[in-house]
Amino acid sequence: FYYLLVILFFAVFYSTGGAVDESGTGSGALLNLFFLGVYVLYMFLLEMLLKGRTIGKIITGTKAVNKDGTEMEPGTIFRRTLSRLVPFEPFSGLGNICNPWHDKWTNTCVIDVKKSHLNL
Predict the structure, then answer these.
(1) Cα–Cα distances in angstroms (integers) from residue 72 to residues 16, 88, 102, 104, in the given order
(2) Beta strands in the chain (DSSP E)
(3) In terms of Cα–Cα distance, which of 59, 68, 38, 62 is closest to 113?
(4) Distance CA 42, CA 44 (A)
């Protein structure tokens, strides 16, 4: 969902002549930093306000929790969000056991809410 918002933003931004200054060069680095900040805020606020869920997790019926099944604290959610920024982190979930770095490093996991015996 986040990436769809970014694509929509870029389509509008560039179609209106954005990211080009008077010399004709772009401001890509600043734009990248801006979207990095927006991503951190988006993921952190959603998982905090929706108690371990994002739009994608709501659609898939999943939720992020601590490994012991308890709800994540804001500090854990923030560390989990920042760890997603590590290069190649999206590929860390590939393999036999799906335990991506952002879960491994923060002792969290994603559960299926419907199949969980936890009172969520």
Answers:
(1) 41, 24, 13, 14
(2) 62-66, 108-112
(3) 62
(4) 6
**Residue from 92, 114, 119, 116 nearest 103 by CA:** 92
Convert the pLDDT of each residue in 97-120 to its tens digit. 678 888 889 999 999 888 876 554
Torsion sign over Cα 66, 69, 71, 73: negative
For residues 44-53, b (16+ Cβ closer than 10 Å) or e, as one string?
Answer: bebbbeeebb
Q: Dump pLDDT digits (tens) for 36-77.
A: 888 899 899 999 999 999 988 999 999 999 999 899 999 999
The structure tokens listed for 75 are 């500090």
